[in-house]
Amino acid sequence: MIKNPVPWPNGARCAVAFTFDMDADSLLHLAHHSSADTRVAAMSMLRYGPEIAVPRILDLYKRFGMRQTFFLPAWCMERYPQTVDMILKEGHEIGHHGYLHEEPNRFDAADELYWMQRATAVFERMIGSRPKGFRAPAYQFSRNTLSHLVAEGFLYDASLMGDDVPYVLRNDAGQVIELPSHIGLDDWPHFQTSRELNYRATIKPPEQAMAVYAAEFDAMWEYGGLWIGVWHPFLSGRLSRAVMIGQLIERMNAKGGVWFARLDEITAHVQGLIDSGAWTPRVDRLPYYEGPIPELGDAPATNAD
Q1: Cα–Cα dist 220/245, whole Å
Q2: Which regions of the chain are under pLDDT 50?
Q3: Terminal-residue alpha carbon distance, the chain
Q4: Which domains does the chain have, with CATH numbers?
Q5: Is 161 helix (H, G, I), strand (E, B) or coil?
Q6: What is the DSSP letter of 113?
């Protein structure tokens, strides 16, 4: 089913990463810059992430002896430095997630690079090192993002959905390791509903969302894949959902043969296999297209962008 499975450490059947994007109230300021301060209920919902959910998640990871990866917009790092300290104290990784959760596809190349570098400067100031990995806010990886990642020295990206195992993104400037997930492993469509954020999913009981996550895990375990949850503390860190996450981890541990790892650790393992010749990745060359496809150039108007 998977043509090119990765040889995972110690004979593990699959690799698993529970990643959390701690966007906090950056989302509200970005969506409603002039009135965010008046939207107190929405603000409280989002601040629940750094203030209540992240400490709960860290305790959960500690109970299971897990080290995982969090992605933080750099503005959130500046706004919630105590949360950054808690995450790092427990041995977890913090990855790059923009400055204010701005979407790269909304910018030209120069402006996208400005925001990427502005966020990296916060990492250097607060953590003392540059981030190794990047996740594009809202999955909005642009046609310029890879070139910026290569130029800025990133080792991996975790924004795309093109495989069930790690693969390589390459262009004329260089390459990075891609650690893919997909929307089924994102908690947003399962749990999020908000007038202010213009998204109203039908909220599911945690058991239903966890059934989706567990089915995806079972398939990855059977065939040697990579399972990456893309979750948000203010959603999945809510009490009943956090309880179910603990039960999901227990289920994975009971099945055995699972390598729980930070994304930088997965990247280092994959890069080591590539360097030694023990495994050869699939390569996606970007950009996929140089511009709009010509077939629609003279066609009647459609509902395309």
Answers
A1: 18
A2: none
A3: 35
A4: 17-31+44-287 (3.20.20.370)
A5: coil
A6: H
